[in-house]
């Protein structure tokens, strides 16, 4: 919402009731706003900014807003200076906005969030030169934010710390601007509820802006709920709170009138009327404000009434407060007629003479202010020159000398501020470089170039930031390559080395890394060859064992093979073949044993042919089976002996 980074507190204020102040940081002429479709240059620039922001967590909001500097902190959240990428795409000369990122209290309390959303919609409809413009209200996940115009200048509380008390003319001029903004909001049934110097901003042009309409009201509405602590959000500032607000009563217009009176008192005196205590506490202590110097009896009575603890005694409206304190000025035509009447009455004395003397006093004030403005101008104090010339111009709108002095002082002041802004951004860029924050340095250097195209120091800083950023990127890629190498992921290491070279790393810098990768590749190849040789040997031994029906040997060699190469399918096949062969051999053995039992029965019955036949069948099933061969031999021997005993008659 505010850009204070390069603005001197106490800049010259603008005339009361003037046009809306300039907002944002405008880029130099020559980069005209593009109407219609955005150019490819704008799209490319926006895409580049989005990529850079995405690489830094939390900088890109909703894919559109690039958060840059933190401009302020408060109980309700942070205010950032940001670039709207839609404006960047359109090559808008003023792509800057303010983004207020609200605290987690709103996202954690649904009722508060809904209330805030309703109030933000109302705030968007407040189009007034003395109220900051709210563009939008949105959220990304748990992040709730509002976008609004970016202002250049200083918050009133900062100005008060440096310059209070203000002159009566300045205080009343700020007061009129504040009345104008509050009156506009009140006519639309909106109460601020947290009106204080911290929510008032004075632009470099001197226009006063009221901040945070709607946010404080949303928090206060939820303060009545036990589920929501508005105090955590800073939604109620005791020093500017009425008795009614402290009691938790619904917001009313008189709350803002009391707070405005407190603000005016601080501007006039530099002190709070009740020692920064709430109205409830001040009433209990019996505190009474002292009359500010410079106020006449009527003015003090009006201000004291607005400071009353009793709402019934305060002015009924903002307009009533303003008009009672500063009676409206008559129009120019009426003033001309009044001047004729004054001249006519001078001769008659009495009241006419007093009015004539008042006119003479005003002329003396104008001349005194013009003399002060000239002295300030030639001494180089352009803020002083601007303020005095402004007072003279307001008293005499047609005075050419006042207009000339005011214009010249503002021009010199603007040029001085532009130089200070450039120097400040350059120093910030240097500080960012010293801290190793290259993204920050790039942003600051580009801001300088946007203010002053071709500024050589900014271009040099930008180049250093670009080099540093590239080197940081290269160092990160090389570190990743080394990590991959340590984990044995050579493909990742080579890909990372190629990426580093594409990013700008020299071949010489990458040579040690590539050499380590090549050495590791050679080592792995040798280890792989040895492994393959060992695998082949074990596989051949398993094959030989299977051929010899040495099933235990087959299993042993296959298991050793799988320990080296878990995916070796031949080892699995060999184990399966061994198991199958073993089962078949066991079944053949049982069949052969059955046949041998039958052969023994035949032998016992001296049926030698049967014995031989059964034994030979067993041998056919289990070749070389010893018991079967023995039975064949026994049967053949017995059969031969029997044949010898047979005699032929």
From TrEMBL:
The keyword Metal-binding does not apply. GO terms for molecular function: ATP binding; protein serine/threonine kinase activity. The keyword Coiled coil applies. Transmembrane segments: none annotated. Residues 65-326 form the Protein kinase domain. It comes from the Bacteria. Residues 1-38 are annotated as: Disordered. Residues 514-548 form a coiled coil. SUPFAM superfamilies: Protein kinase-like (PK-like). InterPro entries: Kinase-like_dom_sf, Prot_kinase_dom, Protein_kinase_ATP_BS, Ser/Thr_kinase_AS. This is Serine/threonine protein kinase. It holds the Pfam family Pkinase. ATP binds at residue 100. Keywords: ATP-binding, Coiled coil, Kinase, Nucleotide-binding, Serine/threonine-protein kinase, Transferase.
């Amino acid at each position: 919402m505010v850009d204070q980074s390069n603005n001197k507190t106490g800049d010259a204020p603008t005339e009361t009731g003037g046009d809306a102040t300039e907002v944002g940081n405008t880029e130099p002429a020559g980069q005209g706003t593009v109407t219609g479709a955005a150019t490819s240059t704008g799209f490319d620039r926006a895409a580049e900014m989005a990529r850079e922001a995405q690489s830094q967590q939390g900088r890109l909001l909703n894919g559109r807003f690039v958060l840059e500097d933190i401009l302020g902190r408060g109980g309700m959240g942070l205010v950032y200076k940001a670039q709207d990428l839609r404006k960047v795409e359109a090559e808008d000369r003023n792509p800057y906005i303010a983004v207020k990122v609200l605290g987690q209290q709103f996202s954690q309390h649904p009722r508060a969030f809904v209330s805030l959303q309703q109030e933000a919609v109302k705030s968007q409809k407040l189009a007034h030169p003395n109220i900051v413009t709210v563009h939008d209200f949105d959220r990304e996940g748990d992040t709730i934010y509002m976008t609004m115009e970016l202002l250049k200048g200083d918050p009133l509380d900062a100005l008060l710390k440096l310059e209070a008390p203000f002159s009566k003319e300045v205080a009343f001029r700020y007061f009129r601007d504040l009345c104008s903004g509050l009156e506009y909001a009140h006519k639309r049934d909106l109460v601020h509820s947290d009106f204080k110097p911290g929510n008032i901003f004075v632009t470099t042009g001197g226009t006063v802006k009221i901040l945070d309409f709607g946010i404080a009201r949303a928090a206060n509405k939820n303060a009545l709920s036990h589920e929501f602590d508005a105090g955590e959000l800073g939604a109620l500032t005791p020093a500017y709170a009425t008795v009614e607000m402290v009691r938790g009563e619904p917001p009313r217009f008189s709350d803002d009138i009391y707070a405005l009176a407190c603000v005016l008192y601080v501007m006039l005196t530099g002190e709070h009327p009740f020692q920064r205590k709430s109205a409830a506490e001040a009433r209990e202590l019996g505190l009474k404000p002292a009359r500010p110097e410079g106020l006449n009896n009527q003015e003090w009575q009006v201000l004291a009434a607005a400071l009353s603890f009793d709402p019934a005694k305060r002015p009924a409206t903002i307009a009533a407060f303003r008009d009672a304190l500063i009676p409206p000025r008559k129009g120019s035509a009426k003033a001309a007629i009044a001047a004729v009447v004054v001249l006519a009455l001078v001769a008659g004395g009495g009241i006419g003479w007093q009015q004539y003397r008042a006119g003479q006093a005003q002329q003396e004030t104008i001349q005194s202010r013009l003399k002060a403005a000239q002295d300030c101008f030639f001494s180089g104090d352009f803020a002083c020159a601007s303020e005095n010339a402004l007072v003279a111009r307001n008293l005499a709108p047609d005075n050419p000398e006042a207009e000339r002095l005011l214009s010249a002082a503002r021009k010199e002041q603007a040029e001085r501020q532009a130089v200070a802004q450039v120097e400040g951004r350059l120093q910030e860029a240097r500080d960012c470089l010293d801290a190793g924050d290259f993204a920050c340095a790039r942003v600051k250097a580009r801001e300088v170039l946007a203010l002053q195209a071709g500024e050589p120091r900014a271009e040099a800083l930008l180049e250093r930031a670009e080099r540093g950023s590239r080197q940081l990127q290269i160092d990160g890629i090389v570190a990743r390559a080394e990590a991959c190498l340590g984990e044995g992921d050579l493909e990742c290491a080579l890909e990372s080395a190629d990426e580093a070279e594409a990013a700008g790393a020299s071949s010489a810098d990458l040579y040690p890394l590539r050499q380590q990768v090549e050495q590791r590749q050679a080592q792995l190849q040798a280890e792989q060859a040895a492994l393959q040789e060992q695998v082949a040997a074990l596989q051949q031994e398993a094959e030989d064992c299977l051929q010899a029906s040495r099933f235990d040997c087959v299993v042993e060699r296959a298991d050793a093979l799988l320990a080296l190469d878990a995916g070796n399918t031949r080892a699995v096949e060999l184990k399966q073949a061994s198991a199958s062969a073993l089962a078949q051999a066991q079944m053949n053995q049982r069949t052969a044993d059955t046949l041998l039992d039958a052969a023994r029965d035949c032998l016992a019955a001296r049926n030698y042919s049967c014995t031989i036949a059964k034994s030979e069948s067993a041998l056919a099933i289990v070749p070389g089976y010893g018991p079967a061969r023995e039975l064949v031999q026994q049967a053949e021997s017995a059969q031969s002996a029997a044949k010898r005993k047979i005699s032929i008659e």
